[in-house]
Amino acid sequence: LTILGLESSCDDTAAAVVRQAGDARAEILSSVVFGQTELHAAFGGVVPEIAARAHAEKLDVCVADAMAQADVGFGDLDAIAVTAGPGLIGGVLSGVMCAKGLSAATGLPLIGVNHLAGHALTPRLTDGAAWPYLMLLVSGGHCQFLIARGCQDFTRLGGTIDDAPGEAFDKVARILGLPQPGGPSVEAEAAKGDPARFRFPRPLLDREGCDFSFSGLKTAVLRERDRIVAEKGGLTRADRADLCAGFQQAVVDVLAEKTRRAVRIYMAEGPSRPLVAVAGGVSANKAIRARLETVCAAEGASFTAPPLPLCTDNAAMIAYAGLELFRAGVRDGLDLMARPRWPLDRAAAGMLGGGK
Ligand code: ATP
Ligand code: FE
């Protein structure tokens, strides 16, 4: 099976070709990503209108590049998979329209993929992970624990009640005058700082369960910055590094403790090959990866995190999710809809009256 995948739900335009022969491990034949960071740099965040226009302009080139690099033609493909949500509606629409055009022109089946399923199925693409595994999905817009039981079967154990951690990294970067996206720049600063100088809150640790809250943490960083600026007239390099280190340490501590709880719930089901996987942009963070690995080892579960290019948005994960859905018999028509909101777990998807 050979699948072309398209991704355009946020600020990366991406296309990729993934192939799986029989039950062998799937192989990424190409994965092209055009980032839009520079386009949004002056605005301090992603501007939806600019993003949508850039996706519309770049998708064709992206698809052509991905197919050329994979050395395949449309005749070699079995289906076209596209992110149909959740995300910025203009971007998602650009991708869906492009995929529909390709499907109509070639007669290839169309498969709408949930962007979160793309992230959540990444350990199957990279490690051939067996069901059920525990997924911690941590990205720019999401933060949740899911038990992955099948490519359309996810049970949510908990998640953030306000901001996602990626959003918190981005906001802290903005507060401290560091470049976007904030994750990599805050991580680099944190590596030079002292995590013990500022003691930021660990929200919801005192409450039972696997829910998170990150918005208070960002506010705490803002207050501390303002206090230092009022006192000394500005931030030194050391102040900035220490604030980043303290913030990152708080995020790591919270993710570690909640993961420990989620792993216990998962382990109580008695999985035969217990595996915990992390995915999404924030899973690129080395401090987070290292700490989660330690927690999982202590609980008797294996741990896996994607290679860095597969942590942040890419189309290989969308093509791969499309491949699993194709095997499961999923086919969409030219009436496929772009869905700005599309929860992954069954219970929530049911409540919105949709979700396959
Ligand atoms: P979603 O997947 O929830 O729709 P998204 O697609 O915008 O959101 P991703 O591309 O998966 O998000 O992740 C981007 C986020 O990951 C950004 O908020 C970015 O700051 C964060 N991020 C990237 N690298 C790191 C890092 N090394 N440490 C922490 N955060 C990081
Ligand atoms: Fe994403």
TrEMBL record:
GO terms for cellular component: cytoplasm. Substrate binds at residues 137-141, 170, 183, 187, 285. Fe cation binds at residues 115, 119, 313. The keyword Cytoplasm applies. Belongs to the KAE1 / TsaD family. It comes from Jhaorihella thermophila. Its EC number is 2.3.1.234. It is found in: Cytoplasm. Its main location: cytoplasm. This is tRNA N6-adenosine threonylcarbamoyltransferase. Binds 1 Fe(2+) ion per subunit. HAMAP family: TsaD (MF_01445). Its cofactor is Fe(2+). It is an enzyme of class 2 (transferase). It catalyses: L-threonylcarbamoyladenylate + adenosine(37) in tRNA = N(6)-L-threonylcarbamoyladenosine(37) in tRNA + AMP + H(+). GO terms for molecular function: iron ion binding; tRNA N(6)-L-threonylcarbamoyladenine synthase activity. It comes from the Bacteria. The keyword Cytoplasm applies.
